[in-house]
Structures are given as C-alpha cells and as structure tokens.
Specification:
With about 350 residues, the protein is of the alpha/beta class. It folds into 2 domains: about 25-85 and about 215-325, Rossmann fold (3-Layer(aba) Sandwich); about 100-200, no CATH class. Helix content is about 35%, strand content about 15%. The chain has 13 helices and 11 strands. The strands form 3 sheets. A 7-stranded mixed β-sheet has the order 7-2-1-8-9-11-10. A two-stranded antiparallel ribbon has the order 3-6. It has a two-stranded antiparallel sheet with strand order 4-5. α9 (about 255-265) links the parallel β8 and β9 (about 270-275). α4 crosses α7 (about 155-170). The longest helix is centred in the middle third of the chain and has 17 residues, at about 155-170. S-adenosylmethionine (SAM) binds near residues 67, 68, 216, 217 and 251.
C-alpha cells in the first residue's frame, strides 16, 4: 500500500479527507485562490451544523465574502454577500450572469501549456517586471490598461478585464495581487500549466439566490441591510493585528466598532459566527458573545511571514450547542493535514 509520509492511510484517503466534512458531505472548492479561505473541513462541517441549528430558511449574510467558501458550502436559498474588493464582486457577477464567463488561455500559453513569465507580465499585467522603469503606460488590452480606463469600459471590455483579473489573481502567491498606486503589481507566483479553458459556468447553479454587493464594512454597518429575525450573519474579516495583506490602509481601527455592531445585532436575536485572531477575543467577550480559541493552520504570510499553527477566535451568539465547534472531530485534528486525515479515517472507517 502506498502511504502518506509513513502514515497508515493512502494518498487517496488523505485527498478524500481534505475534500469532505466528517459527515462525508463534499466540500465545494472556491473558484478563486483567495487568502483566508474557510474551505477546510474543520470550518465547513461546524458551519453547516450551525446553519442547520439556526434554520436553513434564514438568509446567509456575509460582509467579507472573499473566496466565498462559506456561501458555496452552506448552499442557502438566499444570501446577501458583500466585499470591498470591486474586482472580486465583478468576477462573481460575471460567473452568475446569463452568459457566464469562461477563459481561453491558448493565446498566452506555450506548447506545454505553461505561461511564460514575460508573456504574463507583458500581455496580462501590461508591462515588464517590477524594477524596470519606463514600461508604462501599460500595454493596451492588459489588466492595468483596463484599470486606468475603468470609467469608459464597454461591457465587452469589462468582461475581458474580469478574465485578465482571474488569471492574475490565480497566478499570484496565495492570491495576493499586491496592488499599489491602484495598479496590479505582483512580482512572483506560479504560472501554469493551466488547462486551456476555464469555464466558470459550473459555479452558477451553486450561486443561485446570491445578492452581491460591493461595499466596505463601514457602509455595510451603516445600512439597514441585516434583518435579525431572518438572517444568519457570518463575519470573516481581516484578522486583528494580522490583516495587513488585504488592507494596506489598516483594518484594525474597524475591529472594535464592528464587534459593537455585531453585539447590538446579537442582542436582537441574530445568530452570528465571527472569526478573528485571538487578539480580538476581548472585544467579543465584552459584547457577551461566547468565544472559543482553537488552532488553525496558517499558510499565509508569504516571504518572511510566519506559518504554522496559530490560535484563532470563533465568537458566536444565538446558536444552540455551538460547543460542537470546539469538539468537532475535524477541528481537533486540524494541526496538520496528515493528522486530520488520520483523525478522519479513524472516525469514518
Ligand atoms: C478572510 S477574507 C474572507 C474569506 C472568506 N470567508 C472565504 O472563505 O473565502 C476577508 C475579506 O474581507 C475583504 N475586506 C477587507 N477589508 C474590507 C472592508 N473594509 N470591508 C469589506 N470587506 C473587506 C477582503 O477583500 C477579503 O476578501
């Protein structure tokens, strides 16, 4: 028997374990490579359970949609989903549109299906790699050229821009596109091999009932969009003291107002699950949430960043018996993919 690094499970079992929750229900992967995703079984399993407990007729509300792992895996009838990143929301809107969106990469790839870095930088980003001066304005038809002409794009050009953005963020390390000056400037990442066509229309049926908004959390909190009687709120913001990757301008000043806003809604009976770093725990304790710390695998950070197991806060309100989150089998075995896979295979077979 072939085994995963000396463990008594096969690679097939390990792969299966990473793609299913403990009840054997499939995990839908995000169409994007997006940092901070909640697509692991240790999140999806307990969140599915929480949604069942509060009532699946509720509308799922997520002001930090990101890679959409939560909405895709909860499969609510109705969802109100928002993110401050306009490109992200535009990409989902195109996936949901009647025409759908697919990408033919053949013009960018070589005979082996690889995208050469110069091609990537020149045709997609729009100029030569970072550090070389004098390459702007960006080449016509490139992502950055579209960025500079956002006001005047035809629907066809918008679609093209989304296609460029999808490849760009897919090629970036951990999906971080490191934007400065409003332009896209990643300098490294994996570039293929890619399948010649990406067809996102497979996702459209899983996105039925999505109401998409492009709003920052400050505007979202000011709006009257959340209905405590009919919604289920999931908050997965950039983490306190760790969110620099998404928001160079700093998200941390919003953490306290956000916890207070959520606390007010919890008082009105709204079921809420909020994720954050351990540093946010006092904010949610103060708002009388139940809070637990568990361990998560941190794969973000990039060069020089810290990786490994870190504590993570899960705060919840108005969800009966949520201790299941702490005691959830897959959460106990999160410490490594291998350990999780063993845990899963011991429980299931
Ligand atoms: C941790 S990610 C969410 C990941 C998501 N739950 C998933 O499973 O893929 C946080 C998201 O917050 C968004 N964001 C950052 N600052 C924001 C703000 N001020 N208002 C709204 N969204 C913001 C980022 O664009 C990012 O997509």
């Amino acid at each position: 028997m072939r085994e995963v690094r000396g463990l008594a499970i096969t690679p097939e079992q390990a792969a299966w374990a990473a793609m299913h929750d403990v009840e054997g229900q499939m995990i839908v992967p995000s169409p994007l490579k997006w940092p901070g995703g909640k697509g692991r079984p240790s999140y999806v399993g307990p969140l599915r359970d929480a949604f069942n407990r509060v009532g699946r007729q509720r509308r799922v509300v997520e002001p930090f949609l990101g890679g959409a792992n939560i909405a895709l895996n909860l499969q609510p009838e109705r969802a109100l989903l928002s993110d401050s990143d306009p490109h992200l929301i535009s990409a989902y809107e195109h996936m949901l549109s009647p025409e759908g969106i697919s990408i033919d990469w053949s013009q960018f790839t070589d005979d082996e299906g690889m995208i050469e870095k110069p091609t990537f930088y020149d045709l997609i980003r729009g100029g030569l790699p970072q550090g070389r001066i004098g390459t702007w304005p960006p080449r016509e038809g490139s992502l950055n050229h579209f960025m500079q002409n956002m006001q005047d794009l035809s629907p066809e050009e918008r679609r093209r821009m989304v296609q460029m953005w999808l490849l760009f963020q897919q090629a970036a390390y951990q999906g971080h596109t490191r934007r400065r000056d409003g332009l896209f400037r990643i300098g490294s990442g994996t570039l293929g091999p890619y399948s010649p066509t990406w067809d996102y229309s497979h996702y459209a049926p899983l996105m039925r009932g999505w109401d998409l908004r492009n709003m920052g959390i400050a505007d979202f909190m000011d709006s009257d969009l959340v209905n405590p009687e009919q919604d289920f709120l999931v908050l997965d913001p950039p983490y306190l003291k760790q969110g620099a990757n998404y928001t160079p301008d700093g998200f941390d000043r919003l953490q306290q107002p956000m916890a207070e806003w959520a606390g007010g809604l919890a008082q009105q009976g709204l079921p809420i699950v909020a994720f954050n770093s351990q540093f946010a725990r006092p904010l949610y304790d103060k708002e009388r949430f139940n809070t637990i710390l568990h361990s998560r695998m941190d794969t973000s950070g990039g060069r020089g960043g810290q990786r490994g197991v870190r504590p993570e806060m899960i705060a919840y309100a108005n969800i009966p018996d949520m201790d299941w989150f702490r005691n959830h089998p897959s959460a106990q075995f999160i410490k490594s993919q291998d350990a999780f896979a063993i845990g899963w295979s011991m429980l299931s077979h």
